[in-house]
Every structure is written in C-alpha cells, then in structure tokens.
Amino acid sequence: MTAASQPAPSSAGAGPFSRFERLVAWRYLRSRRKETVISVISLISFVGIMLGVATLIVVMAVMNGFRDELLTRILGVNGHLIVQPVDMPLGDYESVAARLAEVDGVELAIPLLEGQVFASGRIGAGTGALVRGIRPDDLSALDLVSDNVRDGSLVGFAAGDGVAIGSRMAQNLGLALGDAVTLIAPEGDVTPFGTTPRRKAYPVTAIFEVGMSEYDAAIIFMPLSEAQLFFNSEGLARTIELFVSDPDAVDALRPAIEEAARRPIFITDWRQRNQTFFSALQVERNVMFMILTMIVLVAALNIISGLVMLVKDKGHDIAILRTMGATSGAVMRIFLMTGSAIGVAGTLAGVVLGVVICLNVESIRQFFSWLSGTTLFDPELYFLSQLPAKMDFSETLSVIVMALVLSFFATLLPAWRASKLDPVEALRYE
C-alpha cells in the first residue's frame, strides 16, 4: 500500500503534524528499490550533517581546552598583576609585598628578581634561560610548580643549596638530579678591562614539569638571596607579582593595590602581557567556527537536492493526497518533517560522535601517532604535553541550534514547491 492510498483525513479533522502526516513523512523516508538515488542523497546529507556537527564540537572543545590549559599554566607561573617600581629601586620589597598580600582579593604577593642567562650542562651547546629569583616559601606556594616536581624536592632549594629547573631543560642539557648547571650572565664583574660575564655552577636540587614546554625548557628557579648575589642586585627585587582570586577582576583591584603600595608603582596585568597571544587564539577560534559551519551548510544543500528529487518523484502521490482532502499545508508539513528528520537525526548523531571524540581525544591522538609513526601535536611546537579538550555547554548548544536551523531552512523551498503542486496538472496524463 503506497502513501497515497492511505485514507486522508478531511481538512477539518486533521491538525498540524497529525498522525497521518507523520505516517506519510516516515514512509517517504524509508528506502525503496526504485528510490535508490534519493536514499543515497539522504544518506549523504545525514552523514554530512553528522560529521559537520561532530567536527565543530571537537574543534571548539579542543580550542577551548587549549586556551584554558595555556591560561592555567601561564597564570600558574606568572602573576595576574605585576607591580614594578617607579623612580627608585625596589629595596623595600619585603614590606611592600606584605602590605599587598593583605589587600582583599590578593592571594599571593611574590617578590622576584629575573635575569636572562646562558645555561649549559653535560651535553649540548647550551641554551638561553630565564632565572627567576624567588623566596623558597613563595615557590612552595606556586602549586603548579611545587605539585609537579618530578625529581628531587624543594627542601634543598629552601636551604639555598641549588636551583630548580624544568624537565625539558634537564633533558636538553643532559642533567639529572645532583648535576651542576652552569649559568653565565652578561652583566657580571667590573674589571679594569671592562665588564666580564659572570659564570657560576649550581647543583640541580629539583626538576619540575608544569606541562608547558616553553616554561619547562627555559625557566630556572633560584633562591632570591642567591639571585641577588648572582645579578649584583643585593637587597633588591625587580618586580612583585600578585596572584588574585579572580583573574578577570584585576581592574577592580588596581586602586587598592596602588594605595597599599605606599610608593610610586607601575602595574601591568596578565591580559596586557599576553594580549596578542590570546587575541590571536580568539580570532582563530571564530574563523574556524565559520569555516567548519560550511560543512553543515553543504550537507543542508544536499537535503534540498534530495527533497527536490523526492517531490518530483512523488508528484503523482501528492496529487492523489490533495484530491482525497489533504490541504497544501498538510503536504508542506509532510515534506518539512521528511527533510527535518534527516537534519535532526544527523545533528543528534553528530553530538554523540563529537562528545565521544572529546572524551577520548588524547587516546585517539596517541593511537594515530602510533599508527603513523610520527608525533602528532608535538609539545615542542604546541606548548602543551597533551591534547586538551573542554566542551562548553553554550557553544555546543549553539552548534546544535545552528545545524537544526540550517536543516529546517533547507527543507522550506522543496516543501513549499510540493504544497503548490497542481493536482490537475499532475494527473492530466494518468
């Protein structure tokens, strides 16, 4: 029995999206031998929407995870607010840091003395590094560092017996726990022949891994008192880094910090120091969303072509339905449901596929790395040691709504054409 042979209710007795309309739409979705081409186009549309939605969800989740991981690691090592002295050196850093730490919203106030050095070990030609002179208690308070010490401990660091280096620096220089890393500073001792670089070897008492290759390969933590001697800055600090409870509310803390400092200071925040980096990430994220939306749009266009062919093939059935009492609105709703069903099913399948991939993205990366014999997502290039993925509910919802809206609009034209079909013309030569 064909769909056209079903008893059609009268226009008065059939409501919108009635059981009769759903039944006819379902029959049009089912594959028949003579409708193989239409079924293939519908399948392609379904797969296209599914892959488009899944790809959008995965890409957005990976980019969100990438941003959050970078933000966590950057702000886990660097302060949210950086206080620098103006007019005179920061010789009273102890008292200033104590006052700043009492400001409501400030969790840590860490005096730092930073300097660029050349580091060398047992192998390799050496590498540039950033020495961060820090008080032992302050280093212990940096959870991202203290909780990720791979070898050794911070006990020796607290005693002033050595330095803490990143895991990638240790690997690149061939250093292990207890080995000596040689540091050369360009600003050294003043002699009658000029300033000579300062050179000194320090034992490695701790090797940390924060998970960001740029930091693991370039940062050396040194006790503040030793750094002051090494950089000829006895009794001084160059900056005070503040860690706050809410990094997005740093602007509200500026007046209180300036008042608590009781001296001229210049304040910069994490957004200013990383503005170009995070702005580039945001632009890339928006562009990727627009580009990948084209995949869903192409799949929606396949729905149009499939429905147009279906309407042409079912012209005889549509004419019979109209003569049996089906209204033009009923015919339009039948084809709306037929096309929308493909979009809804493809979207739901894409959401499931995208969620599964997001939950197992690191395992998938490792599998393809093993399969290809190459390192996908190299930490040396992408900063992070593993591929992160963090799904955002609002973004996922926007992807779902976008796919459903595109699928719905793709069905409007073919459904409207079906509703305008003249039954007299369709049955003239029957």
Cα-atom radius of gyration: 33 Å
Structural class, from helix and strand content? Answer: alpha+beta
Order of helices and strands: HHEHEEHHEHEHEEHEHEHEHHHHHHHH
Helix content: 55-70%
What is the element layout, followed by pairings?
Blueprint: H1 19-29, H2 36-77, E1 81-85, H3 93-101, E2 106-120, E3 127-134, H4 136-141, H5 143-146, E4 149-152, H6 155-158, E5 163-166, H7 167-173, E6 180-191, E7 194-208, H8 213-216, E8 219-223, H9 224-230, E9 239-244, H10 250-261, E10 265-269, H11 270-273, H12 275-313, H13 315-323, H14 328-359, H15 361-372, H16 379-382, H17 393-419, H18 423-426
Helix pairs in contact: 1-14, 2-12, 2-14, 2-17, 12-14, 12-17, 14-17
Plain-language structure description:
With 430 residues, the protein is an alpha+beta fold. The chain has two domains: 218 residues, no CATH class; 176 residues, no CATH class. It is 55% helix and 18% strand. The protein is built from 18 helices and ten strands. Strands 2-3-8-5-7-6 form a six-stranded mixed β-barrel. It starts with 18 loop residues before the first helix and ends with a helix.
Question: Which characteristics define this entry?
Answer:
430 residues; alpha+beta; 2 domains; 55% helix; disordered N terminus
